[in-house]
């Protein structure tokens, strides 16, 4: 899982990056400037953002407002030393998903981040679906037209990522970034093989994995052919 850390204190940022990776397997990218973070979020996609309010160029409140106004729904957890009721209310009203005052315990930060990512991925919902494909988040099983779909753990993880983004194109690197903390032996070639296997298992169903050349893969319902019959 990829985290964007927006923090202008280099010592704190270095410690956070190492601790989040070591204790939770998060891949952390750090920027120390609000404007740079805003530009990076237009180029890349992250599973969550950890944001300090007192950052230069574009302060935390302004960055929050810009992202939410532009319909960027990446989960955002705010870290700040301004621990007051007014700050909490303003932060949440500006679009933050959670708030953690400094100083804090690393265990709590990881727990809060993990909860935000689960909610954003739909894991707090009983199921996700696309066409006749359904994923039960409790049993972690896939069903195709109510029939259990036999998948390997790797196939299941890749299909879950595709289902979470159904209707949207995602590239192989996006998938890889979300799997390396689960299986360090994953690589881009392995993802191609898994996509091939998933296509065979979804063959003749009402959904498909489409390849968009130069963009990535997209899980979507099968478009029925146009009828050639004259009205």
Automatic annotation (TrEMBL):
It comes from the Bacteria. Residues 2-117 form the Response regulatory domain. InterPro entries: CheY-like_superfamily (IPR011006), OmpR/PhoB-type_DNA-bd (IPR001867), Sig_transdc_resp-reg_receiver (IPR001789), WalR-like (IPR039420), WH-like_DNA-bd_sf (IPR036388). GO terms for cellular component: cytosol; protein-DNA complex. GO terms for biological process: regulation of DNA-templated transcription. Gene3D superfamilies: 3.40.50.2300, Winged helix-like DNA-binding domain superfamily/Winged helix DNA-binding domain (1.10.10.10). Residues 125-221 form the OmpR/PhoB-type domain. Keywords: DNA-binding, Phosphoprotein, Transcription, Transcription regulation, Two-component regulatory system. One of its GO terms (molecular function) is transcription cis-regulatory region binding. The modification 4-aspartylphosphate is found at residue 52. Residues 125-221 bind DNA. This is Response regulator. It comes from Pelistega ratti.
């Amino acid at each position: 899982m990829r985290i964007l850390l927006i923090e202008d204190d280099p010592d704190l940022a270095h410690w956070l990056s190492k601790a989040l990776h070591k204790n939770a397997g998060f891949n952390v990218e750090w920027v120390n400037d609000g404007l740079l973070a805003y530009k990076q979020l237009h180029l890349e996609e992250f599973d969550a953002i950890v944001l300090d309010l007192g950052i230069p160029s574009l302060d935390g409140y302004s960055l929050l407002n810009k992202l939410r106004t532009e319909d960027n729904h990446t989960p955002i957890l705010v870290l700040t030393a301004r621990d007051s009721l007014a700050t909490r209310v303003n932060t949440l009203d500006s679009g933050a998903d959670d708030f953690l005052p400094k100083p804090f315990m690393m265990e709590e930060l990881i727990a809060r981040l993990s909860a935000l990512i689960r909610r954003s991925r739909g894991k707090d919902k009983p199921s996700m679906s696309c066409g006749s494909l359904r994923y039960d988040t409790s049993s972690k099983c896939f069903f195709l037209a109510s029939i259990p779909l036999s998948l390997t753990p790797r196939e299941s993880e890749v299909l879950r990522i595709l289902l979470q983004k159904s209707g949207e194109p995602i590239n192989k690197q996006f998938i890889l970034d979300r799997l390396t903390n689960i299986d360090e032996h994953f690589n881009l070639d392995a993802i191609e093989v898994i996509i091939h296997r998933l296509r065979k298992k979804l063959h003749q169903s009402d959904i498909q994995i489409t390849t968009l050349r130069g963009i990535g893969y997209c899980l979507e319902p099968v478009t029925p052919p146009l009828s050639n019959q004259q009205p």
